[in-house]
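Entry 14. Structure prediction run on the chain below.
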Amino acid sequence: MGGAGILLLLLLAEAGAGVAWRPPKGKCPLSCSCSKDSALCEGSPDLPESFSPTLLSLSLVRIGVTQLKAGSFLRVPSLHLLLFTSNYFSVIEDDAFAGLSHLQYLFIEDNEIGSISKNALRGLRSLTHLSLANNHLETLPRFLFRGLETLTHVDLRGNQFQCDCRVLWLLQWMPTVNASVGAGACAGPATLAHMQLRHLDPKTFKCRAIELSWFQTVGESALGVESFSYQGEPHIILAQPFAGRCLILTWDYSLQRFRPEEELSGEPLAIFLPAPAACLVGLPCPTGLTCPLLPDSLTAPSVVSCKPLVLGLRLFVLAARLWGGSQLWSRPSPGLRLAPTQALAPRRLLRPNDAELLWLDGQPCFVVADASKAGSTTLLCRDGPGFYPRQSLHAWHRDTDAEVLELDGRPHLLLASASQRPVLFHWSGGRFERRTDIPEAEDVYATRHFQAGGDVFLCLTRYIGDSMVMRWDGSMFRLLQQLPSRGAHVFQPLLIARDQLAILGSDFTFSQVFHLEPDKGLLEPLQELGPPALVAPRAFAHITMASRCFLFAACFKGPTQIYQVHELDLSA
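Output returned:
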C-alpha cells in the first residue's frame, strides 16, 4: 500500500476510535465498519452500496469485483475521499466515478489494474490528489487527466510502464501541469528499463507514420503523370498513349473525387492527338488562319510525356510523341481551350522517352530525352511565342531519361542511356557541358533526385539488377544503398508533407514504398502499394486538395490508381 493509503487508514481508525455513534439501520453494509462520516469495507464479494448519502470518506480493501463499471458511486455523491487498496479488479470503465463532483482525494493503490479507460476520471472537477501507484498499468490513455484542472499531486509510481509511443503524451503533459507528478520508471523496452520517465526526452520518440490507401481509379493507362497549379487550383495531367491524349484532371468539390476538367461546353478538356488533319498538312484552317506546319506522321498518336508550364495566365503543355510528332499546346487565357501551336524539332525528336522543365538564365526551357539512334536529346528554350532547339545533347546514345537538378549552385542535367552509364552535364557559357559520368552505374534506365538534410541524393532505376541510392559528395555521386528490384522502370522520390518517400515500381510484383529515416540516412520499407496492384507502373506524382494529400500512380498496362495519404499518430 502506498504511503498516502496507509496514512489514510490510520486517520480513519483514529476517527472511529471511541465514537459511540451508530449509523442508521441499513446504512452500513456487511463487511464494513462505519463512523459518522466514513466507512471502511474489507473482503466484500461485491461493491458495497447502502451507505448514508452524506458519507464523506470510503475505503475499499480486497473487494471481490473484477471491474469498476460506470456510475459505481452514484449513491454516495458527497464523497470527498475514496481509497482502493489490495483489490482484485483489473479494469476501470468510463465514468466509473460519475457523480462525485466533490471528490478531492482518489487513491487507487496496490491493486491489479491493467487497464483504465480514457474517460474513467471524467467529472471529478474537485480532485486535487490522485494516486494510481503500484498497479499493473503498462500505459495510460491519452486525455485521462482532461478536465482535472484542480490537480496538485499525482502519483504513478510502481507501475509497469512500457516507454514507447503510448507514453509520449504523458511525457508532454507532465511539464505543462501545475501539479507535482511522481511518474516512476520504465519497465520496458529493454533499452529503457529502469529509466525514470521524467528523464526521457519526448523529442527522441518517433511516433508519426503515414499510410497509403486506395482512393480512386482513372480508367485509361498512362505513361506519365505531373501535378501543377493553374489559377490557384492544383491540377493533374496524365500522358495516355493508347488514348492519344494528355488528360487534365481537377478536383470535384461536390463529389469529392477527381474528374476531367470541363470547359464551358461541358466536354472533358483533353489534348487529343493527332491534331486536325487540315493543320497537320499545313492547309488553311477553317477559321481562315494558317496553321503551323506539323509533321505528317498521323499513324503515331502515342504520347509519352505531357509537361505543363504556367506563365501568368498562359498554360503551355509539351506533348512528347513518338515518330516526330511532338507538339506544343497552349491556352492564352483561362476562358479558352488548349490548342496546338507548334511542332517541336520533328527531325531531332523521333522517339522521345522523357521530358523535363527547367529554367536557364531566367528563361523556361524543356529538355526531351530521345531514345532513337537517329534522333538526339534536345534542349528547347523559349524564344518569342514558341520553344526552339538551343542545343542537341548526347546524340546517338539512345537516352531513356533526363533529370534536372542543381549542384554547387548551378543547373545540372543528368542523362540516362541504354548505351552507357548516366552522364552529368553542367550549365556553362550558355550551354550544357559534360562534367562526369556516374561510376558503377551500368544499365540504369532512369534517375530521380531529392534533397534531405542539406545533401543531394539520387535514385537510380534498373530493370535488371538492384536499383541504387547515391549521395553527392561534392564532386561525384557515391553509392549509399542498393535495393533489390526486378522489372523496375521507376524509382521516384516524393516529399509528402514532412516525409521523404521513394517508390520503387515493379512490373512483376507489388510496388514498394520506402521512407527515409533521418537518423540513418537510409531508405526503409514502409508498405506495398495495393490492392489493387499496380500493373506496370511508370510514374508517380502527389497533389494536395482540400487539405487531403493524394498519390497518383500512372500505369502502362493498367488503369491509373489514386491513393490517399493518411498521417497516423502512434501515440494515440
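The chain is about 5% helix and 45% strand.
Filed with the rest of this week's runs.
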